[in-house]
Amino acid sequence: IILIFHHPYEKKLGQDWDRKGGVMVGKWIPSQYRGVRYREDATRKHGVKADRYFAIRYQSGGKTKEEGVGWASEGVTAAKANETRAMFMANIRAGMRPQSLAEMRDMAERVRREEERVAKLEERRSTTFAEFWESDYLPSCTAKTVRTVGYETGMARKWLFPAIGEIPLQSLTSAMLQAVAVQAQKEGKSPATVAKVLGIVSQVWNLAVARGVVAGDSPTKQVKTLRRDNRRMRFFSEEEARKLLDALQARSPDMHDIALFSLFAGLRAGEIHGLTWGDVNLDAGTLYIRDPKNKVSRHAHITPEIRAVLVRRGADGMNRQEYVFPSRDGGQRRWVSDTFERVVESLGLNDGIEDARQKVVFHSLRHTFASWLVQRGTPLYTVAELMGHTTLEMTKRYSHLAPDTMRAAAMGLSGILDRKPGKVLPFRQRGAEGE
Most CB atoms within 10 A, among 100, 220, 251, 277? Predict the structure, then answer.
């Protein structure tokens, strides 16, 4: 037996009730406006009367659309619903938007989000250099080494925070950064150091552009700095090289081997640290230098000194994926051990030297490799290939080390216009002319 009970109010009004959102609503009742109707809620009240929910019906794209406008208790009336319907119908005829309540809500939401974005942007545009450094820049440095982040932070605290730390990023000017550069130069900082400081500002600015905090080119582009030849030219004499390698062997055989690779193959520290046993070819006598600083891979040559190190370190039985000079955890080394600097200091190789370009650093071993080659008459083009230089201009710094070779080449033209037909030139002149 199925018993059907009717709500007394439903029976009284003679209406069929259904549920919508947990609320009992009645049948639609036409209003005085065409296409506008409402229904009354059995439980919601608007004053002493039942609350009314208004809806509109109209044609769009050949189809009848019906959308709920809202409750009388929320301020909706039949007249307002009619105005909304009339607006949609006019927009449909003119091909304008919005053409429905859904579109109206979507447009309103987009406007709200845009206003919110603009408000947040305006709030962020007051962010100072120091605040952005802490909130955005440092967290973005995950791909950098701890040493690099520490170096940049130290430079920022020394030169940038005191001068521009409290300045909003968008208010930074080239004049402010020019003052930073001038002050650093007055205190004896090299153009290279000043360029690094400005480079840090440029990185911060570019990140701020990407995050919508500022716009436009970095103000560092308009900063002018003094320029000088900052290339290191110091190289070892043979006696200095022997003493250095002997001292390194006594202090750290590992550091000795790394230094020897740079001295006899002209490799950068990063290139040595990146060598795996798979890059070593003892049969061919080569080392494959993958992804170096200039991005152009090349081969270096294994001298007897380097071969002895490789054999001693077990070249034949090593995993090809392992590093030749691994860090303590078996991974790739990231920097040169402080042992090198301590040994250089103990030998007094930098005593009394004020010019940073003349001080001994690990890179001096690579300079020594090139300098010794040039002194022994190796053509600059060959030296450039062995060093992995992308242009000969980078190798020309060593040309002064071969004055005899240059003089001999120039003197080979001596007397060329005095030669009589059939006269035989001396051998050295014939060689100069290719005869």
Answer: 220
